[in-house]
Amino acid sequence: MDIGTKEFNEFQSILLNKSKERSNERKKMIELMALKFQMEDYLNSENKHSKLVGDFLKAHLKTFDIKQNKFAEYIGVRPSNLTKLIKGERSLNHELALVFGTIFGNDPMLWLDIQDKNKLYELSKIKSKEIKKYSLDDLINKVG
């Protein structure tokens, strides 16, 4: 089906009408799934550009029109600490990962894995020369 044809326009109209019929609960579920897929795609990508945990948190908050201060109050953290987390100036801890996972209905490990991917990438840039000196063959030859 080609874009701009009568068939396409009719198909698009049907899809739009169907989307309007969805309940708010269904729409929320679809939004959460889309955000989860974005997070998983980032984790599975070979992308060298770091996307912060905070970038994904901001996307969740924006999608549901939740203000940062309101969210910080709800989860029991100071707004300044939440801002530092969002900017990447503070690390996500396991407790907050559990909270985020519970609120947004995804695996807390997803949040931690994103943080770990970024940390490993940054360390590999900084310590690449030091790390390259290690090898299994070298270890075996020195031990044997």
How would you sum up this structure, described in words?
There is one protein chain. With 144 residues, the protein is an all-alpha fold. The protein contains nine helices and no strands. The protein has helices at 6-21, 24-44, 53-63, 68-75, 79-87, 94-104, 108-126, 128-131, 136-143. It starts with 5 loop residues before the first helix and ends with a helix. The mean pLDDT is 89.
Number of helices: 9
Inertia-based shape? flat
What's the story with the biggest beta sheet? none
SSE order, as H and E?
A: HHHHHHHHH
Task: Calculate Rg over CA atoms.
Answer: 22 Å
- Could you give the distance between the termini? 66 Å
Helix percentage = over 70%
Which features characterize this protein?
single chain; 144 residues; mainly alpha; flat
Condensed summary:
The protein is mainly alpha-helical.
Set down the secondary structure blueprint.
Elements: H1 6-21, H2 24-44, H3 53-63, H4 68-75, H5 79-87, H6 94-104, H7 108-126, H8 128-131, H9 136-143
Helix pairs in contact: 2-3, 2-7, 3-5, 4-5, 6-7
